[in-house]
Amino acid sequence: MIIGAGVGGLCLAQGLVRAGIDVRIYERESGVNSRYQGFRIGIGGAGLDALRECLPQRLHAVLDASTGEISGERRIVDEQLNLVTQLEPGYGGMATDRHVLRHLLLAGLTDRISFGKAFTAYEELADGTVRATFADGSTATGDLLVGADGVGSPVRRQLLPDAEIVDVPGSGVLGRTELTERFAALVPGFGTIVKGPGVTMLLGKMAFRRPPHLAAADLAPEVVLPRTTSYLRWSMSLPAGATPADWTVAHEQVCDLVEGWHPDLVELVRQADATNSSPLTIRYAKPVAHWGTRTVTLLGDAVHVMPPSSGKGANTAFRDAALLCRRLIEVDRGAERLLPAVQAYELAMLDHGFAAVADSVASLSTFATR
């Protein structure tokens, strides 16, 4: 049983189904489109390898076609777009839209996922199985429960009640603006950092190789991907004390902050897509010791949430998914017992997961105000 239908939990589910292992996913949201998910993430290295490992081969071409390049020039400019520092170029991996990727990862899983199932508690049973209870009073029982339910994970709260999630002081805004030729020039390569008076703005381009819905229709007609256009993703740190509660307030604050900046940056902010932009709270998990293996475990942000500053969150979740999937395949083959397999996963996951958290926290200075 997987609690949570984010990209990490769905990646695990795809790998298990590919191996012929029975799996069920329970998601608290009412549907795949019920919550804002539309922002760019970078996937590369071990994370991309792990995603490909779990994803059915027939969907690899769709993945490639519905992503974009993330490489080339990296630079720091001031608020008038004057060059401040030329950084080392960035190479490798791909840019993808989380909402598009989530739809792709749902392909073939519709009969295995239940939406509107808000997890409330688990109970480890005498026969070695585990039972999950949901807010609607229903229950489900399985051999293993995987909490892949994000930073606010109810599974983690029960399993690790003393685990600490830290809110980074200050706040920010995550914005998205449709990509035009004018805005594309703001990010000539990997990414652009704008250092303005008292604030920092990060710019990244999500330029799809092909429109995702057309790529799917051509390469895997049974897969339905959203009609998403290319866009420029931007984020901005806000001065201390500025904590917007909603996008309308946040947008007004950012518009005020960029007044007098280069016209392209002002227009970028002004044209932001309200549906796919939001205030941003940055959090990270403090390291936890191994808790003693049982029939409940954790994956991705549910255990090692990290700041977005180094782009490792999704990559680490995919590594978790592939690692756990490999272990459970061995169990299914009779080559390993369940609890030792889960323990081996947890020890490796905690090691690479919290190393990624540390790297991301150390990179927070990129996002800091000046």
UniProtKB/TrEMBL annotation:
Cited Gene3D superfamilies: FAD/NAD(P)-binding domain
Question: Which InterPro entries does this UniProt record tie to the protein?
Answer: FAD-bd, FAD/NAD-bd_sf
Q: Where is the FAD-binding domain?
A: 1-335
Q: Check the record and name the Pfam families matching this protein.
A: FAD_binding_3
Entry keyword annotation includes Iron: no
What keywords are annotated for this sequence in UniProt? Answer: FAD, Flavoprotein, Monooxygenase, Oxidoreductase
Its domain of life reads Bacteria
Q: Name one GO molecular function term.
A: monooxygenase activity
> What PANTHER family does this protein map onto?
FAD-BINDING DOMAIN-CONTAINING PROTEIN (PTHR47178:SF5), MONOOXYGENASE, FAD-BINDING (PTHR47178)
- The entry's protein name is FAD-dependent monooxygenase
What organism does the record attribute this protein to?
Answer: Solihabitans fulvus
